[in-house]
Each structure stands twice: as C-alpha cells, then as structure tokens.
Amino acid sequence: MSTEHLSNRSGEDAAIAPDARIAAIAAWLGLLSRTLKTCRLYADHVANTLPFRENLAAHLIAHLQRHGHFKLEFSAHEITCDGHVVARAQGRDDDLALPFHRDGVRAITINPGLLAGELDTLVDLLLRVTSRSSRDEDDLVTLLWDADLPHLDMSYASAETEFDIDGAGAGPLDEPGSSGPLALVPWPSGATAVKGGRGDGRGTGTGSGKGADGAPGSGAPGNDDDAFEMEQRRAAANGATFRSEDWQAGDPTDDLEDAWRALESTSPAERERFHAELAREREAACDAATTALVRDVMRGELREGDAHDLVDLLARSLMEAIGAARWNDAHETVECLTECSEGAWSAAPLLDQLAAPDAPVTTALVRHLDDGDVNGLQAFMRFAQSLGPASIEWLMSIVATARQQRTRRTLVRLLGEMCEGEAERLVPWLADSRWYVVRNAVLVASAQELGVPVELFRPLARHPEARVRLEVVRALARADADAARPLLIELVDDADSEIRHRALHLIGARRHPNASAALVEIVKAPDFHKRPIEEVRPILAALGGCAGDEALAHLEAQLHAPGWFDKQAGPFRLAVARCMAIIGSPAAHALLARHARSRNASVREACHTALQEVGRA
Fold it and tell me: Which of helix, strand or coil describes residue 80?
C-alpha cells in the first residue's frame, strides 16, 4: 500500500453528476454501508454476514474490471469522487465518511486486482474503529498501514495537524498561516505570551520558565489575562480559531489536581443524587413528560406547522394515558391539547374509536373502573368532564358494559349533568336491544335539570321489559305534569300493577279535564264493579284527585251498580264514596249527605263513613 502525506487538496463544492461510473461508485458505497450495519447487527453470527461481504466484493471487482481504479476523498460528512458527491451522511449512525476523516485519512485509491480478502480486511478495520465497545487506541491510518493492502493507496493528514472537523469539505488543507478551515494551528511566536506565563520554547517569550528546548525564557513575567487576550489576537491575525480549552502542556497542574480532589470528595453524594433523579425520571409517566415538554415548547416561538405536530404528539400521548388508566395525566393532556390548538382540537375521532363495539382499550378500562377504588373513579370522572359532550356516547358504552353498580350509578350521575341540552344523544341508547342499557339511558335522561325529555320516552310506554316501563314512570314524576299526562294515561292500562298504581298516583296529583275524562271512561265500563277491589281503589282515588263535578253522575251510578248479593259490594261502594269525598265540592258533599240516608244499608254506610272521614258527618 502506497501512502501520501496530504498537504493540499481541492475543496471546490462537489456536485452530483449523472455519470454511470460515478453512479456505480455511489451504489457500491451504499452496499458498503449496508454491509457494515449487517456485520454490527450479527456480530456473533458470522455466517449471516458472508452473503453481504461476497456481494460487496463481487460488485467492486466487476467495477474495477470495467472502469479501472477510482479515488475516494473524505470530508467530515461526505465522500467525493472526481469532484462528485457519491455518499453523504444521513444521520449519526449512517456517516461512512466520518471514521476516515476523523482518523486523518483524506483519500484512498482502489486499484484493479483487489482481492476479496483485502476488502474483508478493510471492512474489519472499519468495524473495529467504529465499534462503540472497542478500546483500541489505534487510528485507521495506523491500522491500514499495518495491514499493508497492496491494491489500496492512502493519502492522510499528519497527526500533528489540528483540524476543525465541522468545517471540513469547505476548503483545502492550507499551509501554516493560511485562513482555511483546515489550516494548521500556528505555533506560539516568541513575541506573544500564552496563558500560564510560559515562553515559546526559543528563549524569547515574555513569560518566565523554560522553553521546549530547555532554554530559560528571557521575558519578564506577564499578566495571565493579558497573555490570554494576546493569544486570542494572535490567533485571529493568523486566521485560526482560538478555543478556550486550548492549554499548553507545560502549564501548571495545581488547580487541576485540587479540582480533582474536590470532585472525589463530592462524587458519592453527586452519584446518589444523579441516580435518584434518574429513578424519578424513569418512574414518571411518558405522557406526563410529553405534556411538560410541549408546554415548554409553547413558551417559545412556534413556526407554521409546529402546533399541528404538537397536537399529533399529544393525541398519541392521550391514548397511552387512557390505556394505562392514568386519569390525572390524561386530564392534563386534554387541557394542554386545548391550549395548543387554541380550542380547535376535537376529541370526536378519538372517542368514536373508543366507543366502537368491543374496543380493547374501553374493555380494559371498564375492568379497571370496576376493580378500582372510589378515588380512581372520581379521577376518571374529572377526565371525562374535560372531554365535554362528545364523550357521552363513550361513557354510555362504559355504563352498558360495567359490572359494578357503583360504577354505573356514578357515571349515570355524571352523564345526567353532561346531557343538559344534549338529550338527543341518548336516542340510540333508548332504542338499544338490551333492556338494562335502555333503563340506564332513561335514568340519565330523567336527571335533566332543564326538563325531562318526555317525548323520548313515548316509544318506551310499550317496552316489553316491565323494569324499563317502571323507570319511565319514575322519570315522568320529575317531568312537567302537562307534558307527562298523556303518557301517564297511556300507562294506566299497563299489565304491571305497580306501574298502574304509580301512573294513577301521578295523574291524581292535579285536576285536569283530560285526565278526568280518561278515568271516567274506565269507570263507566259495565264490568268496572266486577274488577278486583285492588284495581278499583287506585283508579277511583286518582279520579277523585283529577276530576270535578262532571264525574259525580257517573260515580252516583256506581254506588248502585253492585247487586244485592255481590261479595265486594261494600268495599266497592266505600271506594266510590271516598272518591266523591276527595272531589270535595259542595255538590259532592250534598250527594254524599243525601245517600247517607239511603234505604240501601250498604250505600248508606259507605256514604256515612266517607263523610265522617272528611269531618262532615
């Protein structure tokens, strides 16, 4: 392997050309990068890397036979060939030029006749110098020198030269005193003192001490700060960059040793503090950290599109918080989303996904709520409230699948508050095929402080499940009386006795001609007196509460309806007489007083008892 000490190289801006030879070299470098990644990945399984190495060697040998030798030049992050860029770094782990340039290799020439073994050696050396676990202090120049590859020539930079790696590729390697980014750092001159008060090594420095050749400096001791400033001016005059960490090998080390001892004395406590902070950071939820990070970003200036990216990030964080049942973090994330989007963010897409049948996140969430404590349930309620009315469908799906009554009751109360003015969102749940879901939806609707939506309950008056109809009657007790009355009258004929009694009780709470007319129609039936007394009493009690004098004639007829030998004639006539007493008008009392003198003992006794109960006997 021949070598060349590099003092100058072209630094003109490279441009990618559509030359077939250049394109082939670029493709081969891509294969080299892929082979290096595969070898790192399968470091313990050499057999897996053999096909990649063989393919890499075959392509290179074929290229050399077709196009002959080629020369690759390396800057910090680019590889060029004949002035054209053939490889450029795409990231920290994909920078093929860096290991060459970092270790001083400025160019290599690959000649025809290269053997596969030589290429394997080059790959192994690159893996060696780029391995994170390697402690080998040899650089790539030394390793290539020792390998002595006959078909590979190398140009390198002297190890004594200091380079600015970030500026590589912008200009040529200059001679000492030039101003290029790869210029040699000038040696301290005899007229300038360096920080620390040492001379220039030739006995002409302004500071005291010995020079590099052992001769004592002839200058007087100078001020350290002045010397530092002079060094900065000298470096600027020569076109070099003076860095604050530059220091001379002969500078005193007393301060460094004192600092080291101070570090050793404080390191146990600092290590303990560091590990404690690290443990706290690892324990902190990712979504909480994301929210804090986004708030920090929002305090700065956002570019166009940044807010959209932040919203996407927070939406993913919100989903993770919901899946992990971290309700406080989820609540904070929703607030941050609202702030970040200035109120434009909508939870509807996320909630539609969560409310889907058999959604896995919601299924797991329901189990967590059922098995959790009251504090967790309260935290979930705060989070759900922050989502607004859009979460009603999702919360109803949770109520529909929750096993614990405590969970259902808590969420029903929350839904009652959230559905104010949003009762139409409950329509699908009122039509659900599961009776218990319908009953819970009725409970939610009946909790409306602005008024119970009676019209939503009308289809439920004939629901096949009695428990649903009973819940409807209970809801109508909290509704407007005039709005609820038609539905209550419809429920008077219900097959369930408890539903009938509750409906009749509500009807009889206020006088109304429509209710009176409906009940009078029932009382006028020819077989009314034959119905069980347990059915008759609630009907007559309700009629007394809602009717006026218009019902007295029909009630008087019922006093004489039972026959002489009817076993329930006495209780039936007493129920009729009490209905008249509840009406309480002067005409009703006069009718009772007249029939209290009836020749029919049963009629006379019923009317007399009714008058006694109202204090008019």
Answer: strand
